[in-house]
Amino acid sequence: xxxxxxxxxxxxDDLAQQRxxxxxxxxxxxxxxxxxxxxxxxxxxxxxxxxPHAFAAASRHLNVTLGTINTAVLLxxxxxxxxxxxxxxxxxxxxxxxxxxxxxxxxxxxxxIKAVEYYEEYRExxxxxxxxxxxxxxxxxxxxxxxxxxxxxxxxxLHLTIGIGxxxxxxxxxxxxxxxxxxxxxxxxxxxxxxxxxxxxVFVYPLLYLIDRRH
Amino acid sequence: MNEKxxxxxxxxxITVWATLMxxxxxxxxxxYVNLGPxxxxxxxxxxxxxxxxxxxxxxxxxxxxxxxxxxxxxxxxWLIIMLGLTMNDYLTRNLAGFPGW
Lengths: 215, 101
Fold this sequence. Notes:
heterodimer; B: 2 domains; flat; disordered N terminus
């Protein structure tokens, strides 16, 4: 039970080759994730191109302050994740755990702020299929915007929730001393995932919140 | 191969993060300035720059093998094909005289 696992699996020549293979596997998964979110971005582009005014009007209903704060929170979490990977490479277990804790905390803060936004939108009767009502023109297209908004941010939040779970898993591994400077590939890979989720939000933020703020 | 050489320094991470925060303020600020149709263009260019910074530095692609570059690039290429061909279809339907949708 306490016997250390062999670091290099038998199908690999050395640690570098194993590391490369693990990283490529994660990248391949992320490419499928790009296509997963890509479909939503394509649907968004299509409907925004055909109903620009409705999308601009709908976008102004969103709380841009909270959206901007949340973007900053995620960018900070990515920095802390990058530091976690760095600490793992250096074999600094304590710093690794601190960085992971901060990353998960910032992730939870993002979800909390997002929940406040969802509650606001619920109160303003903007949730399709639940209580959507508007007196504005192009009501159906505005509703379409909110379908895309809740789908995109909801799936993003789901990804972030999974990310927080994975970071918690890393915390447990680090706490048990299972992550060393030689064996830290799980930190690298979950780091890649975390940054990917951040990138999705980097595009979601201007496309949903900042369509037309000039009025 | 020296593992330590393959990743960025904390200094680089801080610089990248500071740039990302500045770009966030920039995209927030320009959204309130009337640039006509260029508002969307500016917002998307800033988002692309932010994504590239994250990919190159936080995700270590700048320090990774050519094969990683190809994997990372493949995602964008397929995305552009999906977006490009879909929009090419819908936006030209009326040009060809077929009924709209």
